[in-house]
Write a sequence for this structure.
């Protein structure tokens, strides 16, 4: 891998009229980039600073651009064959990627683990990457460097992503500028890694696909995980009556403390009756369904007139009777964040930022794993005894 670097020899240095001076040098040096970082370079000292430094300081220098092989390596998960979780290999000698046009390099602090990453890893998903690859799309961290044409972000920004180019299960990742958002100070990096796919999906399902309205009743069928908690918070903030399900009492408590008015245990025999009772027998207006292959047929019995079931998650086929949709004129609607139009994603981002500002968007973090335990994380997210918030990796 080639890396452009400016070798700078500082001969003299003074503060500029715009206020920049030697003390500002560290601001322009990407943290942890391997570039030496001193408060004030000594006169005549050999240092290596990015071009930005040169334009920001009035320094008299010898300035030579060179191209050299980078020696910067990182820890990252690599997948070289599709299969069981054991194909997730921790490598310690992966070159740190370089940001291209309109891309940024992010030093990753945390990365969300999403069920779809297990389907892709197994090779059974409709959309699979070419091998080898690094999984992961929802990172949070700090911008380390920016590529050509990046205008909205700069080194040092705290950010989160809803997609990466080079994979998020790594110490560094490259992402397109349009998939990177500034992380407000009110949220920590773990929470930042829980926003991407879960909150954007929940918003898309509730607002863009279901057209849920204030005053309606929504059932979040599988509310204790990443998407479910997000859906509870958004639905509550938007004025819906929120019913959520979980498979454990711990999960039910979490659902209640994240926006649900009522919680039900989807492992109990009679929980569907309890949900129906909670709506005085009318049924719910919207269902956000996390396990359609198990629940879709029952969902159709739970809907009110003109009710809508949003297919967010499904792990296989199920038989339904189409007639169940006729009497109440109900709809079954698929949701795919991956194929959401750009405009909808921008709307999601705007609404979610309003939630971060107002304080109702607060991701609940569940199990946390280090990179070397990623195979266990993939095992656990599929065979979980009960979700308790968003699963993440810590770098
Ligand atoms: N369509 C899209 O664009 C899109 C985007 C993101 C995610 N998804 C899919 O949505 C699903 C949820 O994702 P996630 O990130 O929230 O996963 P997660 O964090 O692993 O949560 C899974 C949720 O499913 C619940 N669940 C388990 N058994 C259930 C049952 N019988 N009935 C109802 N819910 C049940 C779990 O509850 P307990 O563990 O408490 O039992 C938990 O709340 C996954 O299938 C994922 O692939 C789709």
């Amino acid at each position: 891998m080639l890396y452009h670097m400016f070798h700078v020899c500082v001969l003299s240095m003074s503060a500029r009229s715009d206020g920049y001076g030697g003390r500002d040098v560290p601001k322009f040096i990407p943290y942890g980039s391997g570039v030496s970082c001193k408060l004030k370079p000594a006169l005549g000292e050999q240092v290596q600073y990015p071009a930005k430094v040169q334009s920001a300081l009035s320094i008299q220098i010898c300035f030579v651009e060179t191209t050299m092989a980078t020696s910067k390596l990182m820890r990252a998960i690599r997948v070289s064959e599709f299969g069981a979780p054991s194909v997730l290999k921790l490598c310690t000698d992966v070159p740190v990627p370089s940001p291209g046009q309109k891309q940024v390099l992010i030093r990753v602090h945390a990365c969300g683990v999403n069920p779809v990453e297990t389907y892709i890893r197994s090779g059974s998903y409709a959309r699979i990457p070419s091998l080898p690859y690094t999984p992961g799309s929802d990172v949070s961290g700090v911008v380390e460097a920016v590529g050509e044409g990046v205008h909205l972000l700069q080194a040092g920004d705290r950010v989160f992503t809803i997609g990466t180019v080079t994979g998020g299960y790594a110490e560094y990742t490259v992402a397109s500028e349009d998939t990177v958002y500034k992380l407000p100070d009110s949220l920590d990096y773990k929470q930042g890694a829980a926003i991407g796919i879960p909150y954007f999906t929940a918003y898309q399902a509730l607002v863009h696909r279901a057209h849920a309205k204030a005053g309606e009743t929504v059932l979040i069928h599988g509310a204790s995980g990443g998407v479910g908690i997000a859906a509870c918070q958004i639905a509550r903030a938007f004025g819906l009556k929120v019913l959520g399900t979980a498979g454990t009492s711990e999960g039910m408590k979490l659902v209640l403390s994240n926006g649900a008015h009522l919680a039900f245990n989807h492992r109990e025999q009679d929980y569907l009756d309890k949900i129906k009772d909670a709506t005085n027998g009318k049924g719910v207006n919207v269902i956000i369904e996390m396990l359609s292959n198990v629940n879709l047929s029952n969902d159709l019995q739970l809907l009110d007139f003109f009710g809508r079931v949003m297919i967010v998650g499904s792990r296989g086929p199920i038989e339904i009777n189409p007639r169940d949709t006729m009497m109440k004129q109900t709809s079954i609607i698929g949701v795919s964040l991956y194929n959401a139009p750009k405009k909808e994603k921008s709307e999601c981002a705007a609404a979610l930022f309003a939630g971060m500002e107002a304080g109702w968007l607060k991701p609940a973090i569940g199990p946390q794993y280090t990179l070397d335990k990623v195979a266990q994380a993939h095992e656990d997210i599929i065979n979980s005894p009960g979700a308790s918030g968003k699963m993440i990796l810590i770098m």
